[in-house]
Amino acid sequence: MNDINETIGRQREYFGSGATRPVEFRREMLKALRTALERHEEELYAALYEDLHKGREEAFLTELSIVYQEISAHLRGVARWSRRRSVRPALQV
C-alpha cells in the first residue's frame, strides 16, 4: 500500500509542476497511448476473449474502436479545449 501512496504522491507532484499543461505535451501523450494500444492489440484481443468471450470483430467494434475514436477526437479538440477564455464571475448568494 505504501508503494501506491508514493506513486500517487509523485504523480500529484508531477501534475502540480505544470509539466502536463502544454497542449503539445498532451497531444504527444495521446499519440503514445494510441501507439501502446496498437502495439498490444493482440494481447487486448486475447484478454477480451478470455474474460468476456468476445471474438476479434466484436472486441474491436465494442471496445477498441471506441477508444481509438476517443483518442482521435481528443487529438483534434485538445488545442481548442485548452484555449484561455474569459468567464463571468458567479453571482454570490
Characteristics of this structure?
single chain, 93 residues
Task: Indicate the topology.
Blueprint: H1 2-16, H2 23-39, H3 41-52, H4 56-81
Helix pairs in contact: 2-4, 3-4
Write structural notes for this entry.
It is a single chain. With 93 residues, this protein is mostly helical. It has a domain at 22-81. Helices cover 75% and strands 0% of the residues. It has four helices and no strands. It has helices spanning 2-16, 23-39, 41-52, 56-81. α2 (23-39) runs antiparallel to α4 (56-81). The longest helix is centred in the C-terminal third of the chain and has 26 residues, at 56-81. The chain is extended and about 55 Å long. It starts with a helix and ends in a 12-residue tail after the last helix. The model has no long low-confidence stretch (mean pLDDT 95). This is Aldehyde dehydrogenase. GO terms for molecular function: aldehyde dehydrogenase (NAD+) activity.
Concise description?
This protein is an all-alpha fold. The chain has four helices and no strands.
* Number of strand segments: 0
As a percent range, the share of strand residues is under 5%
Weakly predicted, low-confidence segments: none
Q: What's the N-to-C terminus distance?
A: 43 Å
Briefly note the structural class of the backbone.
mainly alpha
Shape: extended
Proportion of residues in helical segments: over 70%
**Overall average residue pLDDT:** 95
Rg value = 19 Å
Number of helices: 4
Q: Give the topology string: H per helix, E per strand.
A: HHHH
The main sheet comes to:
none
